[in-house]
Amino acid sequence: MVEEVVWTIRASKTYLQIIDYLSIEFGDAVVSDFVTTVHHKIELIASNPFLFRKSSSQKNIYITVIHKRVTLAYRYKPVRKRIELLIFWNTRRNPSKSRYK
């Protein structure tokens, strides 16, 4: 079990960008569904950090689909029992710019 879930600055920024986009384009109901889905995924990650696909390019980084156009990358630090949310990624963007740091 994970003891701590930390949002990086980049994760917070990209999350809010997606929320803003959804709010403008689709309205509050879609935003509410997205927020609920994100919180549910974070609960799943906290209960089992190895549940989702491991990144092929970087160590201890995992990726999960939030929506067909949004993924979440996170890092698991087993010694600290800590999850770091790294980035919410719009899958329509260029993947070479996603650099999970």
Polypeptide structure, described:
- The protein is an alpha+beta fold.
- The chain has helices spanning about 10-25, 30-45; strands spanning about 5, 55, 60-65, 70-75, 80-90.
- The chain is built from 2 helices and 5 strands.
- It is globular.
- Strands 1-5-4-3-2 form a 5-stranded mixed beta sheet.
- The chain has a single domain (about 5-90), classed as RelE-like (YaeB-like fold).
- The model has no long low-confidence stretch (mean pLDDT about 90).
Question: How would the blueprint of this fold be written?
Answer:
Blueprint: E1 4-7, H1 9-25, H2 28-47, E2 53-54, E3 61-67, E4 70-77, E5 82-90
Parallel strand pairs: 1-5
Antiparallel strand pairs: 2-3, 3-4, 4-5
Low-confidence stretches: none
Biggest sheet, strands in spatial order?
1-5-4-3-2
Measure the end-to-end span: 23 Å
How would you name the CATH homologous superfamily?
RelE-like
**Structural class given helices, strands, pairing?**
alpha+beta
SSE succession: EHHEEEE
> Helix amount, in percent?
25-40%
Shape: globular
Share of β-strand residues? 25-35%
Whole-number radius of gyration?
13 Å
CATH class: Alpha Beta
**Mean pLDDT over the full residue set:** 88
Number of domains: 1
